[in-house]
Amino acid sequence: MTPSAFSLTLDPAVLVLEDGSRHTGRAYGARGTTLGEVVFATGMTGYQETLTDPSYAGQIVLQTAPHIGNTGMNAEDPESRRIWVAGYIVRDPSRVVSNWRADESLDDALVRDGIVGISGVDTRAITRVLRSAGSMRGGVFSGDAADLTPEEQLRIVREAPAMAGQNLSAQVSVAAVEVTPATGERIGNLAVLDLGVKRATIDNLAARGFDVHVLPQDVSIEDIRAIEPVGVFYSNGPGDPAASGDHVTLLRDVLDDKLPFFGICFGNQLLGRALGFDTYKLPFGHRGINQPVLDKQTGRVEITAHNHGFAVDAPLEGETDSPNGYGRVEVSHIGLNDNVVEGLRALDIPAFSVQYHPEAAAGPHDANYLFDRFADLVRTTLENKN
């Protein structure tokens, strides 16, 4: 299918934030009402990967880049089976699609997946509000919902659930096991707990020699043991890690079994909680493909892709004894913008994690080596068993 130009609608839409501020623009995508946590993403490219990242479930995403949609949408780059954002905010949507790989316009894709959006608003001004006050609940109202009174719209927004305390894993996880065979020299079966995993992550793990078994988020330790895994991986995903007690309990069983473990993003937060540390909500989170992170082991500064609103509360310097009895732990990576914990490394068990996305589809590849580091950890563990 060849995507065609589309006319920008004049249908009204309004973005309402829980602080009472209103931003009037034009309807974009599907019409109706959508509610969620309003967050901003700083990437200038890769909006298709952002939209299809399950970690954005429950969030209305504002793109800080002003011009969005020029490259359309294609069938090769999605990170999952659908668009997951709760809503979409852009300043200037492209009037035409200008890329030979495009199969449809961004507007058509938003309509197809029922994503309510808004365009023609001052995204810079909204970003400054979120940067100062922090991410907050919001709603986009278009179609008939645009005619609701301001008081009614604000009431609807303020009655919506906050992100803190939400467990959203069941919304984004697979319903049944899905297996991707190894494309590199085979190491063995890898159990991937799908908390919102992305396609690029699966492909990177398969390329390192793992038969990747993507498991539903509600599996038991017996289900994991049944596939005789050489390691376990916890994916990225949406929601509050403090509301995922079952996943933490499962991970403690994995650590007790001495299975090599690698977690990214949400998986990093859950490893932190399994080790006995707390997590907390960041004011506005890290979302974009240009976040500087220090790898303390190598001394290198890497530019990395992020999408997280929560972080692990652990000492940044030195070694710390795991409060839950898993030996020594160190913070392996630190975010240089705000000194947030960006990685954990257990020194007495085979487990580590990072807060960002080393697969970095549509982003920098500085951290891709972490998949090799995990494969080496698994090989070493297997050699020591023999």
TrEMBL record:
<comment type="subunit">
    <text>Composed of two chains; the small (or glutamine) chain promotes the hydrolysis of glutamine to ammonia, which is used by the large (or ammonia) chain to synthesize carbamoyl phosphate. Tetramer of heterodimers (alpha,beta)4.</text>
</comment>
<keyword id="KW-0547">Nucleotide-binding</keyword>
<dbReference type="Pfam" id="PF00988">
    <property type="entry name" value="CPSase_sm_chain"/>
</dbReference>
<keyword id="KW-0665">Pyrimidine biosynthesis</keyword>
<keyword id="KW-0315">Glutamine amidotransferase</keyword>
<feature type="binding site">
    <location>
        <position position="307"/>
    </location>
    <ligand>
        <name>L-glutamine</name>
    </ligand>
</feature>
<dbReference type="InterPro" id="IPR050472">
    <property type="entry name" value="Anth_synth/Amidotransfase"/>
</dbReference>
<keyword id="KW-0028">Amino-acid biosynthesis</keyword>
<dbReference type="Pfam" id="PF00117">
    <property type="entry name" value="GATase"/>
</dbReference>
<feature type="binding site">
    <location>
        <position position="309"/>
    </location>
    <ligand>
        <name>L-glutamine</name>
    </ligand>
</feature>
<dbReference type="InterPro" id="IPR006274">
    <property type="entry name" value="CarbamoylP_synth_ssu"/>
</dbReference>
<keyword id="KW-0055">Arginine biosynthesis</keyword>
<feature type="active site" description="Nucleophile">
    <location>
        <position position="265"/>
    </location>
</feature>
<feature type="binding site">
    <location>
        <position position="266"/>
    </location>
    <ligand>
        <name>L-glutamine</name>
    </ligand>
</feature>
<dbReference type="InterPro" id="IPR036480">
    <property type="entry name" value="CarbP_synth_ssu_N_sf"/>
</dbReference>
<comment type="pathway">
    <text>Amino-acid biosynthesis; L-arginine biosynthesis; carbamoyl phosphate from bicarbonate: step 1/1.</text>
</comment>
<protein>
    <recommendedName>
        <fullName>Carbamoyl phosphate synthase small chain</fullName>
        <ecNumber>6.3.5.5</ecNumber>
    </recommendedName>
</protein>
<dbReference type="InterPro" id="IPR035686">
    <property type="entry name" value="CPSase_GATase1"/>
</dbReference>
<feature type="binding site">
    <location>
        <position position="237"/>
    </location>
    <ligand>
        <name>L-glutamine</name>
    </ligand>
</feature>
<comment type="pathway">
    <text>Pyrimidine metabolism; UMP biosynthesis via de novo pathway; (S)-dihydroorotate from bicarbonate: step 1/3.</text>
</comment>
<feature type="active site">
    <location>
        <position position="359"/>
    </location>
</feature>
<feature type="region of interest" description="CPSase">
    <location>
        <begin position="1"/>
        <end position="186"/>
    </location>
</feature>
<comment type="function">
    <text>Small subunit of the glutamine-dependent carbamoyl phosphate synthetase (CPSase). CPSase catalyzes the formation of carbamoyl phosphate from the ammonia moiety of glutamine, carbonate, and phosphate donated by ATP, constituting the first step of 2 biosynthetic pathways, one leading to arginine and/or urea and the other to pyrimidine nucleotides. The small subunit (glutamine amidotransferase) binds and cleaves glutamine to supply the large subunit with the substrate ammonia.</text>
</comment>
<comment type="similarity">
    <text>Belongs to the CarA family.</text>
</comment>
<feature type="binding site">
    <location>
        <position position="310"/>
    </location>
    <ligand>
        <name>L-glutamine</name>
    </ligand>
</feature>
<dbReference type="InterPro" id="IPR017926">
    <property type="entry name" value="GATASE"/>
</dbReference>
<feature type="domain" description="Carbamoyl-phosphate synthase small subunit N-terminal">
    <location>
        <begin position="11"/>
        <end position="141"/>
    </location>
</feature>
<keyword id="KW-0067">ATP-binding</keyword>
<dbReference type="InterPro" id="IPR002474">
    <property type="entry name" value="CarbamoylP_synth_ssu_N"/>
</dbReference>
<feature type="active site">
    <location>
        <position position="357"/>
    </location>
</feature>
<feature type="binding site">
    <location>
        <position position="269"/>
    </location>
    <ligand>
        <name>L-glutamine</name>
    </ligand>
</feature>
<keyword id="KW-0436">Ligase</keyword>
<dbReference type="GO" id="GO:0004088">
    <property type="term" value="F:carbamoyl-phosphate synthase (glutamine-hydrolyzing) activity"/>
</dbReference>
<dbReference type="InterPro" id="IPR029062">
    <property type="entry name" value="Class_I_gatase-like"/>
</dbReference>
<feature type="binding site">
    <location>
        <position position="239"/>
    </location>
    <ligand>
        <name>L-glutamine</name>
    </ligand>
</feature>
<feature type="binding site">
    <location>
        <position position="55"/>
    </location>
    <ligand>
        <name>L-glutamine</name>
    </ligand>
</feature>
